[in-house]
Design brief:
alpha+beta, three-stranded mixed sheet, three-stranded antiparallel sheet, 19 helices, about 35% helix
Length: about 600
């Protein structure tokens, strides 16, 4: 405990002060901190190592600036860590530095010296820069057991336990970690840097699950289809999520599956085990550190969030009501057929637009729909736990492999002291639960329908949510796990069937635009700096611009795109960065009408 307090004191001594105003988005201050700090099962690096680690090229502690150099936001908490980066203690007692959803979905915007916190907005951070420097730091520290950098690291980590044997063990552990991490980064470094405000979430999740977890290194691909971090205040009540609309989102199991997939992508651990006497078609057990019950709570809290309003950011110029009225007419004529209005808390269907029609950069939807690889340990097993159904062949879509792992993780209790290793005792018998249902599997498949979702986006009001939560709690108990999993299997098959439905083709989702003023840059890949630019023909949009640390442009509606400290130069000529397409407002040709539409968009 003393060594942790010592290192934490060093971090806090360098913590930067901050001042920002939170807009009224239906969260209390305590709820905001719950979302920022609730761990979800991410295992990036051992926690005490993270606090003791120095930057690769000098003696400055890695988190001395609270991650400011990467664009992370100060939290004001006692940990000295930025928003969304937390100590994640797992059921097996290990403690790691972990990411939460708030790390990528919280931003600050500025105007004339005033800073506004936008909860649920896409972060302005450089996630890849953070991961890459962390790799360089662990590599630099593990060069030699006698190097001054490692000696300082060891003294911080070991404290009173420091000695030749303990130091040799720590060095070996760090060296192994650094080498594995560096290999992952080699496979995950794209030809075109993502820069600020973006990540290739699908590419990183696919690499983590299908390459590392399934132990098929050849499944790794360069994550070269980055997208902007989406805003989350509508997510809970939309029927489909992700930019390509490829993930169902209508039931609690859908939403839990979406969140489990997210935490698998940010370094949750998955341990795969197969029982020797169980036939190959039965899927293997997949224990994970993903905190399923915490993910249910986080979904509840995010469902309370509402879009930020321009009018609440009192430093911004007031909206011109005359222009707004004309702008609403133009919106109804040109935009409403795709971007419907929202009623907070009500379920809503989103419209999917064919790639050929919207014409924007194809990278993301092609990654999700077409990337395939080796099935590895899943070859020959039933897809998505459905007995007598389709089996994985030697090759499969990466999305299908990832979906199967996510479903298995939902069904199987977390790694814990009674479940410490892939071959250890106490693992929930997924095989036993599945085999027990085989005689009735086909009739159960036909009759196991989930109840229609409630008319609210708050899952606490949903009886199905409470049933699933109770089953997840029971699955932690070895005596109740098999019966709980029997019931979850039927629910998960319904989710799997929806997830496996083939889409009409390559598509992108047209989502509601409430709070759009605070979500620049625009298009799914963040290739257009302002809404005024988006309303122009693609040929007239900026070819390059700077991204990061958003200063609101109240006239063009978006972020000021000029160079400033820490900003990233966005080049639309690079693969994945194309700013073409979405020219639906082409009928709006006059400057007066464009200005009127912009005024209305501010008000949403």
């Amino acid at each position: 405990m003393e060594k942790r307090l010592f290192v934490l004191a060093i971090v806090l001594s360098s913590a930067t002060s901050f001042a920002q105003t939170s807009l009224p988005q239906n969260w209390t201050a305590s709820r905001r901190q719950q979302v920022y700090m609730t761990a979800q099962g991410s295992k990036l690096i051992p926690y005490e190592w993270a606090l003791a680690l120095e930057r690769p090229d000098d003696e400055t502690l890695f988190f001395a600036d609270n991650g400011k150099r990467f664009g992370f936001l100060p939290n004001g908490s006692s940990t000295g860590l930025p928003v969304g980066i937390v100590e994640d203690t797992n059921l097996d007692g290990s403690s790691h530095l972990g990411l939460t959803c708030a790390a990528c979905h919280t931003r600050d915007v500025h105007f004339n010296g005033t800073t506004y916190r936008i909860d649920g907005g896409g972060a302005d951070s450089d996630l890849f820069g953070f991961l890459a420097e962390l790799s360089r730091a662990t590599t630099a520290t593990s060069q030699s057991i006698s190097s001054p950098k490692f000696v300082r690291f060891a003294k911080r980590v070991l404290g009173a336990k420091d000695g030749p044997k303990a130091r040799a063990k720590l060095f070996s552990q760090l060296k192994t970690f650094a080498q594995g991490y560096a290999t992952m980064m080699v496979h995950s470094t794209p030809a075109t840097p993502w820069g600020r405000s973006r990540t290739d979430a699908f590419g990183m999740i696919f690499n983590r699950v299908t390459s590392i977890d399934l132990q098929v290194p050849t499944n790794s691909r360069k994550p070269d289809a980055p997208v902007s971090y989406p805003f989350l205040w509508d997510t809970s009540w939309l029927n489909k999520v992700q930019y390509d609309g490829g993930i169902p989102n209508e039931t609690i199991i859908d939403r839990l599956g979406r969140n489990v997939g997210e935490v698998l992508g940010v370094f949750a651990e998955v341990r795969i085990r197969r029982l020797k006497l169980v036939p190959k078609p039965v899927p293997p057990i997949m224990n994970s550190t993903a905190k399923r019950i915490d993910l249910l709570a986080l979904e509840d809290w995010w469902s309370e969030l509402r879009a930020p309003k321009w009018s609440d950011a009192t430093a911004l110029p007031p909206i011109d009501t005359t222009k707004l009225k004309r702008g609403q007419e133009l919106y109804n004529q040109n935009c409403l057929k795709c971007h419907a209005m929202v009623t907070p808390g009500k379920r809503q269907n989103v419209k999917l637009i064919a790639l050929n029609d919207v014409g924007t950069d194809p990278g993301m939807t092609k990654t999700a729909a077409t990337h395939s690889g080796k099935s590895g340990q899943l070859e020959g097993v039933w897809k998505n736990l459905i007995p007598f159904g389709k089996r994985f062949g030697p090759d499969a879509l990466l999305a299908e492999l990832t979906g199967h792992v996510g479903i298995s993780v939902i069904l199987t209790r977390e790694i814990s002291p009674s479940n410490p290793s892939p071959n250890g005792p106490g693992s929930t018998s997924l095989e036993a639960a599945t085999v027990a249902t085989l005689p009735a599997s086909r009739s159960a498949e036909a009759s196991g329908q989930e109840a229609a979702p409630p008319e609210t986006n708050n899952d606490r009001d949903d009886a199905e949510r409470n049933r699933v939560r109770a089953l997840l709690e029971q699955s932690r108990d070895p005596e109740k796990a098999t019966s709980a999993n029997d019931e979850l299997v039927v629910t998960l098959r319904s989710f799997a069937a929806r997830s496996a439905q083939e889409k009409a083709g390559l598509e992108y989702r047209a989502r509601p635009l409430d709070g759009i003023w605070a979500t620049a840059p625009y298009l799914h890949n963040g290739s257009v700096p302002t809404l005024a630019d988006l309303l122009k023909p693609a040929a007239q949009r900026p070819k390059t611009f700077f991204v990061g640390d958003c200063e609101i442009d109240p006239v063009n509606v978006g972020c000021v795109a000029t160079q400033r400290p820490g900003a990233f130069l966005f080049d639309t000529s690079k693969d994945g960065n194309l700013n073409k397409g979405h020219e639906y407002a082409g009928a709006i040709t006059s400057d007066e009408d464009r200005a009127a539409l912009l005024e209305y968009l501010k008000s949403l």
